[in-house]
Design brief:
The chain is built from 22 helices and 22 strands. The chain is an alpha+beta fold and 612 residues long.
Length: 612
């Protein structure tokens, strides 16, 4: 009890902050998890030194560390830094290909590679295979287990109801050597850690496991939606992995509410759901309920979808969904559908490794920072402000050495055998929890629009869209989705931005916004872009007027369907912020309802040449 009191008084207060309400009595299991966070973050350098030594010891005889790096069994930081270079996926691809083809010798990892985790293929334009090992699941499961004890400090009572989380698997493939290749979440959901998990009141899902594990996206979504509707009063949080996934679920409800209501009224599942295990699982929940069917029809038939989440699931306390990075542009739409519910971003992870937690999960999305847990892997950071574009390993700094306010590229060394691997994420240090730095996700590296010498990254494009879309508010419209391309078929080339609009009223968004306003949006975007872009437009004439192409509603859903048909994971799918693949551009262009160009030159003077 003394331990719980100490944890509640120190960890709880530190995580909640001075303005938060007093905590409810804490469970012993929660206190243990919070104490673990305190222990891991109190001396991160010692933990990191131990982690690196463990990784190098277990992988000491691998071909990569012996033949490539000449490490000769050393496990200390000094020789690691001197011998092991930074690596990109392209550097490791020959080794990974051999493992995928069936070579079982210790190439990257001293432990057997159990499967490959695939990237979604939307961030860098290709599907990557990340080798993983069996005990990596233990580390992922541990990080998952820390989320709700932290959340309970801010939103107590989450063990008194259920979570409506739209979770999906992707049909896996096999490498030529017989190893499974699948997205990281599919791996987790199909693992015994998830399928045979003990009951956890904090993670009591409305969705049956059989529905989550169904590879057919329609059947899985339909079953999860009908079960969530049947348990509407039990739902305390609604979520998906990414914001785009939750919006896809809302769109599914818009398209299928009549059939869902009919099924609930009859107590029988539509024949469109054919998977026997899914039908059996849903049958345990679905009962005839004419009153519930009437509620669904009343709420969905009016055509007014503002606040639909809290109208259907009235006890929802927050949305559990990632809205950082490129997902930030979904925040206004989520607010529209949820009636302004808080949005909790709880964890930072990737296919390569799981990294850390948001210890203030109820903060505003713009303030989200993640505390990297030093037991997950060995972290290093490449400063972004040194002009070191190619990457000089001598400039890498350890987790305990990062500086407040600076931006770094994340570099990791994992138990599975990735050594000084450049993840491609750019992070900014925002503060510290104990001795552990906290980071804001800034952007993915090398997601750029470029016509000539200009370079526009994802974060800058996001800011320009936000600034321009403010002009739509007077017309009751918002940008619900966007992407872009550097159009070079004309001379000079120019930026093309594709917008899908949502109107708040009954009038279609395209009709609600006039051409003059959309042209002003083009110019507003140009004014928000960097001085190199504006110089190219004004002084050099090397970039033409920015163009906004408005596409018809549902276009970006078609874009996701196309990506999924080509192997992307529904869980990990993110709309690419720049598109270059001709079939995708053709799809977008075939859905354009209006094309609008910037009507004037943006502001630029020579004095601004070096200000960005």
């Amino acid at each position: 009890m003394a331990v719980m009191a100490e944890v509640s008084a120190t960890t709880g207060a530190a995580l909640r902050g001075p303005a938060s309400p007093a905590p409810a009595p804490m469970k012993e299991s929660d206190a243990e998890k919070l104490r673990f966070i305190e222990e891991m973050t109190s001396d991160v350098d010692a933990v990191q030194e131990r982690v690196l030594s463990e990784i190098l010891a277990r992988n000491a005889d691998t071909e990569y560390l012996v033949a490539k790096c000449g490490l000769a069994g050393a496990t200390d930081r000094a020789r690691f830094r001197a011998k092991v270079p930074m690596a990109t996926y392209e550097d490791l691809q020959p080794y990974i290909r051999r493992i995928a083809d069936g070579d079982r010798s210790p190439i990257l990892s001293g432990h057997p590679v159990s499967e490959f985790l695939t990237s979604s293929g939307t961030s860098a334009g290709e599907r990557k295979l990340m080798p993983t090992i069996e005990d990596e699941l233990n580390r992922r499961t541990l990080l998952y287990s820390l989320q709700m004890p932290v959340m309970n400090l801010y939103v107590p009572g989450m063990d008194k109801g259920k979570a409506l989380h739209f979770l999906f698997v992707k049909s896996e493939t096999q490498t030529p050597g017989g190893l499974a290749a699948r997205p990281v979440l599919t791996s987790y959901y199909k693992s015994s850690h998830f399928k045979n998990r003990p009951f956890d009141a904090y993670n009591n899902y409305t969705s049956p496991t059989a529905a989550i594990l169904c590879a057919d996206a329609f059947q899985s979504m339909y079953a999860q939606m009908v079960c969530g509707l049947c348990q509407r009063h039990d739902v305390l949080r609604v979520g998906a992995v990414f914001a785009s996934g939750l919006l896809r679920a809302i769109r599914f409800l818009q398209l299928n509410w009549e059939q869902l209501a009919a099924d609930i009224e009859a107590g029988a599942l539509t024949p469109r759901v054919t998977d026997p295990s899914v039908r059996e699982a849903v049958a345990e929940i679905l009962r005839p309920d004419a009153d519930l069917a009437a509620v669904i029809r009343a709420e969905c038939s009016s055509g007014e979808w503002a606040g639909i989440i809290t109208r259907i699931w009235p006890n929802t306390k927050y949305l559990d969904v990632i809205v950082t990075g490129a997902m930030a542009q979904y925040i206004p739409t989520l607010k529209h559908y949820s009636g302004g519910l808080p949005m909790a971003c709880t964890m930072y992870a990737s296919s390569e490794c799981y990294f850390g937690l948001n210890l203030r999960p109820m903060c505003d999305p713009s303030e989200v920072s993640y505390t990297l847990m030093p037991n997950m892997c060995y972290f290093e950071f490449l400063p972004m402000d040194t002009g070191n574009g190619g990457g000089d390993a001598s400039q890498l700094v350890d987790l305990a050495q990062v500086e407040l306010g600076r931006e770094y590229e994340l570099v990791i060394t994992t138990y599975a055998g990735l050594n000084r691997y450049r993840v491609g994420d750019v992070l900014q240090v925002t503060g510290f929890h104990n001795a552990a730095p906290q980071f804001r996700f800034v952007r993915r590296k090398n997601v750029l629009l470029s016509i000539e010498s200009d370079k526009t990254d994802e974060a800058e494009l996001q800011r320009a869209v936000e600034r321009a879309s403010a002009l739509l508010r007077a017309h009751g419209a918002t940008v619900v989705e966007y992407t872009s391309q550097a159009y070079t078929k004309s001379i000079p080339g120019h930026y093309v931005i594709y917008w899908e609009l949502l109107a708040s009223g009954a009038t279609g968004a395209g009709a609600a916004v006039d051409r003059e306003t959309l042209e002003r949006c083009c110019l507003e975007m140009e004014e928000a872009l960097n001085s190199v872009y504006r110089q190219s437009r004004v002084a050099d004439g090397s970039i033409g007027p920015l163009e906004i192409r408005v596409v018809r509603p549902g276009t970006f859903e078609e874009l996701m369907d196309y990506a999924i048909s080509r192997g992307a994971s529904i869980n990990q799918y993110k709309v690419p912020r720049c598109v270059t693949f001709p079939p995708i551009i053709e799809l977008l262009d075939s859905r354009v309802v209006s094309s609008n160009f910037s009507p004037a030159l943006p502001h630029w003077t020579p004095a601004q040449r070096n200000d960005d």
